[in-house]
Amino acid sequence: MALITEQDIRKLISDGLLKEKGEFHMGKDTILTPSARAYLLEKNITLTGRDSHGFNHSNQGKLTDSEDKTENNKRDPLEVSVGFDTVFGVHLEEKPEHMTHLRGNLLVFKDHKRIILRGAIDYLESEIILAQIVSERIKKPKLTKELEEVIRFIRKLLQYEITGEAVGDFMLAGLNEKDLREQSYHPSQYFGMKHFLPTYQHGEMTAYLNKLRTLARKTEIVAFKAFKAEDGTVTREDIIRAFNRLSSFFWIMMFKYLTGKYDE
Prior knowledge:
Layout: E1 2-4, H1 6-14, E2 23-26, E3 30-32, H2 34-42, E4 46-49, H3 65-74, E5 85-86, E6 99-103, E7 106-109, H4 113-137, H5 141-163, H6 177-185, H7 187-191, H8 204-226, H9 237-258
Parallel strand pairs: 1-3, 2-4, 5-7
Antiparallel strand pairs: 6-7
Helix pairs in contact: 1-2, 4-5, 4-8, 5-9, 6-9, 8-9
């Protein structure tokens, strides 16, 4: 469901995607805020289509469910596959440079919160690869292998974000979610080493792992913002939780490295 605000309408007009005295087509799952509706009226923009409450804003009146299905069946199947749709209900023949794919041929602005999340995941992966270069240089293949497992994991999370598939249960280096929380909370019990504040004295590899830990925490916050609605409700808690557990795993990796668990 897309919530369209007055700011969204103003941006569409300023970007040339919506013309004054033109038409704004409401998608089936689109809701306009009162201020957005008022602004459309102010700009003499005609509201057409159906909103998520089933109201038809064109001159044809309200359609029954059976009539709506009949109308959908009459459409040329090629018609819906040509061009691009947007969450604002505007259909485009070409993809503007300042927009990108949310899923399929559905476009959003590049500052969309879920696109920002995908960029954060991409950045996290790039930093993991740099950490692998360091682990290979210092001859820690076990560490390199675990970092590769993390890369596969976050690529899966990206896939789940795009497809809407649930994350489900997962393991990292043989640890389930409960194990990750337990070992990260009680390192002295599992590694004989208390919680510590990282410093340069812990060395280059520990510094890289600590950076990955903080990036995972940052990505978790980006995911939270991406899936938090204006009314405060949150969806995709599975993805948010996964990044929380990932930051715990990087913390565990720091303890493993400092206690020699990655030595051959």
